[in-house]
Amino acid sequence: MNFEHTEEQLAVRDAAREFAKSELLEGVIERDTEARFPSEQMKKMGELGFMGMMVDPKYNGGGMDTVSYVLAMEEISKIDASASVAMSVNNSLVCWGLEKYGNEQQKEKYLKPLASGEVLGAFCLSEPEAGSDATSQKTSAELNGDHYILNGTKNWITNGSTASIYLVIAQTDAAKGHKGISAFIVEKESEGFVIGKKEDKLGIRGSDTHSLMFTDVKVPVENRIGEEGFGFTFAMETLNGGRIGIAAQALGIASGAYELALAYSKERKAFGKPISQHQAIQFKLADMATNIEAARLLVLKSAWLKDQGKDYAHASAMAKLYASQVAMDVTIEAVQVHGGYGFVKEYHVERLMRDAKITQIYEGTSEIQKIVISRSILR
After folding, report:
1. Domain map of the chain by residue range?
2. Domain spanning 7-120: which CATH class is it, in words?
3. Which one of 75, 127, 350, 363 is the catalytic residue?
4. Does domain 122-232 have CATH number 2.40.110.10?
5. Start and end of every Acyl-CoA oxidase/dehydrogenase middle domain (predicted)?
6. E strand or H helix that includes residue 215
7. Which of 33, 59, 120, 173 is the most buried (most CB within 10 A)?
8. Taking the complete model, does pTM exceed 0.85, yes or no?
9. 145-165: buried (b, 16+ CB within 10 Å) or exposed (e) per residue?
């Protein structure tokens, strides 16, 4: 195996690192406190090509590989996980889903502005009674001539009010269960589409999370992705890749917290010497570094498998499961290394600890990842 990154991949990583430090770091604590979306920063990320990294250049994308994408995701997530989740959804779920399964007309009309960062996209699967059990879709789409009538509610939607294009999963034939679920492209301006309140969250507070309500929304037939009944497969296949993005986010949160703890341990003195010279702290740092490196290898392997056109569902589930646990463990220890200072906002690690928790929940909880993994190893 070759563990060396190409010059192009390293250039992408370095560009993301520089952007995160120069554009995202300033004001990140205030954005978290105020639950304010980083609108200007996201616009700049689009201009730099971070919002459609893996999309073919003919659709305004960067034409990059998945490894480059996760390297960039890690660097952005070290500083601002709220920005990185918007980046992840746009890249992994919306752009990838449209490029992989959309028709040429849909790609021209919707993928191009999404990949260029001109507009943001949202992926609408979760519902009040359909979180981990994605088969229990209550949102319905009834065919009526040349359009569908969409009714229902979606919960926890990232980019909920800032998106312009929404990929919505809905039931078109309830009698067929999950085989009667379809996928649709819905425009923000659609009559009957209402954006609910913004969620007041524990972490990733700067991300734009809303409930969405659809009441007799007309969706043209040409905005259906694939055939009727393809929606559940579309959602599951898209989430397989999305888990790589969230695994990279978790890795970035962990590595960001570790870097802060490492630097602080060399500056803070106790009992006449830097705390990094005390074995208790050294062992914490050693565990953090080892677990982060193990998570990084899992994330990179899943990205590499995807780039090679190999089955990556099993690997992406493992990467997300492990990296999200490492994010929680490392951020907790980073707060501990900082002591009392770790408990206040100024030192960033308490925010990273709060941000880490969601990586064990969205795009498939850790329990769902274990189901995916166990099915793979027992088949």
Report:
1. 7-120, 122-232, 240-378
2. mainly alpha
3. 363
4. yes
5. 122-217
6. strand 209-220
7. 120
8. yes
9. eebbbbbbbbbbbbbbbbbbb
Confidence band for 379, pLDDT divided at 50, 70 and 90: confident
Long-range contacts of 283-290 (CB under 8 A, 24+ apart): 284/333, 284/336, 284/337, 285/258, 285/261, 285/337, 287/333, 288/254, 288/258, 288/261, 288/329, 288/330, 288/333, 288/334, 289/258
pLDDT digits (tens, 9 = 90+) for 181-229: 999 999 999 999 999 999 999 999 999 999 999 999 999 999 999 999 9
Nearest partner of 129 among 167, 168, 156, 158, judged by Cα: 156
Domain 240-378 sits in CATH at 1.20.140.10
Query: For this structure, is 142 an active site residue?
Result: no
Distance between CA atoms of 220 and 155, rounded to whole angstroms? 23
CB 309 within 8 A of CB 67: no
For the record, the structure tokens of 201 come out as: 């969250």
Joined together, the tokens standing for residue 8 give 């192009």
Bridge partner residues of 65 (DSSP) = none
Closest CA to 210 of 175, 255, 159: 159
